[in-house]
Amino acid sequence: MRMRVGVLRRSALVVVDVQKDFMPGGSLPVPDGDKVVQPLNEVIREFQARRLPMFFTRDWHPPNHMSFRERGGSWPPHCVQGTEGAEFHPDLLVPEEAIVISKATEPDKEAYSGFEGTELERLLREKGVKRLFIGGVATDYCVRATVLDGLRLGFEVIVLEDAVKGVAKETAEKALREMVLGGAILARTDELLFE
Ligand code: VGL
Ligand code: ZN
Description:
By secondary structure, the chain is of the alpha/beta class.
């Protein structure tokens, strides 16, 4: 095993938007979006065993959200609060102690980042977290925005490269470049060494 990045005491996992609507068959499918579930579950088990904090963000839109095409936005309706499409992937492990962060909940505001308009930063600081491990979908939208915000806020950020998937190849590659230039580290889930 190649050991490259340590998962230390002040680490937290952030799982971004692993919801049915973003999976194949959903209303805004990310190609191979479901492939993030298995590597994430392995990391989730390790975090759980060490009682390290875990945050699961979810896109949680009202039915009239401004990002939907009917309101002039870019997307088909997706992740509407309380609908099946907004549920987490059925195979994703969501431990009871994990904290769910709902975002983009207001009709007239878009929020790709898990930090935008949420309690995420306050909760991380309260727990003394310094290092974030981030995976989920979509690399080119919500993962990108969450990673860049985390870096701007002064967290160390490790992007789990086998546990992220993008909407489109070109934009996902561009997003990964931006994240690395912003200071993020890319690591595969099998390169993590747990304390
Ligand atoms: C997302 C598009 C629209 C995401 C959310 O989770 O990456 N993408 N809403
Ligand atoms: Zn959305």
